[in-house]
Structure formats: structure tokens, C-alpha cells
Amino acid sequence: METRTFQAREIREALALVRRELGPDAVIVETKRVPGRALGLLGGSFFEVTAAPVPGGQPPAAKADAAADPGPIRALLPERRAERFRDRPARAPVREMIESEPQLAVAAAAAPLLPHAALRRRLLAAMVPRDLCEAWLRGLTPAGTVGDPGGAEAGLRAALLRLIGPPVPLTLGSRRVAALIGPTGVGKTTTVAKLAAHATLVEGRRVALVSLDDGRIGGTAALRAYASLLELPIIVAPPLGLAQALAQAKDAELVIVDTPGLSPAHPEAFAELGRRVTRAGEPVATHLCVAAATRSEELERIAHLYRVAEPAALLVTKVDEAIAVGSAVALRVRADLPLSFLTTGPSVPDDLRPANPEVLVDLLLGATRA
């Protein structure tokens, strides 16, 4: 005997449909929530009830004086469906779920899924890719989330904090050179200025700026203007000659290298950038700069193209211009690149902060803290 599926906004409505179509003795096989696809990403959800009529049971129009014994569920289903439900206990007839224990029916169907459904909508709205979203939600302990949305969110928050991890500094150990790489328009030059201003004005370090943007007319104009304002030396590296530029900046405690944006139509340019950065004569901490509003698919493509430069960290720019940061967090996970800094506006050096995981999780889950 085949089963039938009914959907409704409320569990009571779905059970009423079962009773009307299959009779009061129909056996409830499964209840679950399903997304309301027609309502879009942030739409509601439906209750879906799968039920089977009892052979020889009372038809929908008949009056039932007593509930029929449903027997094992596998006895009510054809052999090809029985295996799926082999270890599940028999369910009560729909009559009992509606009339005897309506609150239990609602709780059983809704409680395990409500916290996850709400969190799923928030993560998807934050532009977290669906596969990562589902993986994170599967990591939650169902028993700890029943009827406890706050507990579910706390569990997800703790997991995300561990996953994102603490921010890494601009340079590590004895390294003194940091290079910013990334596509055109993500704000690399402005970020270089912010980092240089903070290191100079706040930390009191001797800083030098180096530009690899030697092939474009006016490519160094903005960096030269920042260097003049901060009274910092600036060196334009000759082609394939980053080592020469670093030798000229031998007295600097920190050297920050600005690089040109590259076109995916010229893959040879990425290879050349990789050679210039990795053959600098001394270790370079390379930060891949990406704009927070970029789609996940494009971010993965960017990371693939710039892998030749061996990025050690991810620097997310223009957070203030993005409606969501889920795609950037997804890149941090998929590319296994720790985060270093976030930029949150155009002001130099104010709109720069370490990529603290607490801030990112707040943004992911819709908190107001920025």
C-alpha cells in the first residue's frame, strides 16, 4: 500500500488533510518541515506529513468509534519501501494525533527542526553557500537544540568561532615584508596606506613602501600620494626585481608591497607576479585581498588564479559595502587561508581592524555589532 504526502502551513492543517483524504485511522509515517520554495530565500516553511491508509480501515466519510491497530509500518508499505522504515516504531493513527495528543503531535514534528530552520535562513541570507550551511548545521547536536533556539545558536556560534580562528598579523616571526595581492578594485592601495599609517603612527615602526605596479601609467600615483602624506619612502621595483627594491629598503623594519590588479584573460601575468613575490630574496607574507561583496564562485576563481603567489592569509576589504560576508568566510574555510584584517570604510588609517572571529560571526548571524 502506497503512502501519500500532505503539506500545510500548520501541523494541524496537514493532519486534517490526512484525515479527510485517508480517514481517521490513517497511519502517520513521517512528519517534517520543508522549505517554502515559492516564497524565496527568506520565506517560511511547510509541515509535510507522510501517511498511509489502513487496509480495511474506515473510509473518510465513515464514523470511527475506535482507533484501528495500525500494526508495524513495514506491513503497511510495499516491500521496496519497507527497508527504509525497518527500525522505526509504528506510529499512531491520525485520529489519535489530532484528538488525543495534538500538542505532542506539534512538538514532535516541529521541535527538532525549528532552531535549525531559523539558523539556516540566517546563514543563507548571509550568502553562506548551501553545502557549507548544511555541514555546519549537521555539526550541531540535535538533542541539545530541541525547543531551545538559543542553545542551537550558541552551539553554532561556538563552532564558527573555532572554524574561523584568530586573525594573523601582517608579518610573522622575523619576516619584515608583507605583500598585498588581489584583483583590481578591491582597495589594495588604500589598504596598504592604512597598514602603513597604523604601523608608523601607532606602533612607531620604520616603514617603507614598494610598488610592483610599474607597467601602468599613473599606477603608483595614489601610493606616492599616501607616502608623501605619511612621509614614508617609496620604491618602484623594476621588472622581476623585487629583491633590488627590498635591498634599497634595508633600514626599514616593515616593508609593505603594493601589487597591480590582474586580468584573468592574461594567465601569464599571474605567473609573473608569483615569480616576483616568491623570489624576493627574503620571506614575504602575502595577503590575498578580496572584496566582501564578491560572490563565492568568483572568490574561488580568484583564489585559484592567485595561488601561484602562495598567499598566506586572506584580507577582506569593503566590509561596509557588503550586505553579507558569508562568501568571504566560505573562502576562508575552503581555501584554508587564515584571515588577517578587515577594512570597513575609506578612512586612513581608521577603517582597518583585525579580522576578529567574533565580529564575523556577528555579521553572519545577523547581530548588530559591526
Chart the SSEs and their pairings:
Elements: E1 4-8, H1 11-22, E2 27-35, E3 45-52, H2 73-76, H3 79-82, H4 94-100, H5 102-110, H6 114-125, H7 130-138, H8 149-164, E4 177-181, H9 188-202, E5 207-211, H10 221-230, E6 234-236, H11 242-248, E7 254-258, H12 267-278, E8 284-291, H13 296-305, E9 313-317, H14 326-334, E10 339-343, E11 352-354, H15 357-364
Helix pairs in contact: 1-4, 6-7, 6-8, 8-15, 9-10, 13-14
Task: Write a short abstract of this structure.
This protein has 370 residues and is of the alpha/beta class.
Portion of residues within helices: 25-40%
Structural class of the secondary structure composition? Answer: alpha/beta
- Roughly what is the average pLDDT, rounded to an integer? 78
Main sheet makeup? 8 strands, mixed
Uncertain spans, ≥5 residues at pLDDT below 50? 37-43, 61-91, 100-114, 143-147
Q: In percent, how much strand structure appears in the residues?
A: 15-25%
Shape: elongated
Gyration radius, to the nearest Å?
A: 29 Å
Helices, by number, come to 15
List SSEs in N-to-C order: EHEEHHHHHHHEHEHEHEHEHEHEEH
Number of strands: 11
What does this structure look like?
By secondary structure, this protein is of the alpha/beta class. It contains 15 helices and 11 strands. It has helices at residues 11-22, 73-76, 79-82, 94-100, 102-110, 114-125, 130-138, 149-164, 188-202, 221-230, 242-248, 267-278, 296-305, 326-334, 357-364, and strands spanning 4-8, 27-35, 45-52, 177-181, 207-211, 234-236, 254-258, 284-291, 313-317, 339-343, 352-354. Strands 6-5-7-4-8-9-10-11 form an 8-stranded mixed β-sheet, with helices on both faces. A 3-stranded antiparallel β-sheet has the order 1-3-2, covered by helices on one side. Helix 6 packs across helix 8 (149-164), helix 8 (149-164) crosses helix 15 (357-364) and helix 9 (188-202) packs parallel to helix 10. The longest helix has 16 residues, at 149-164. Residues 37-43, 61-91, 100-114 and 143-147 have low confidence and may be disordered.
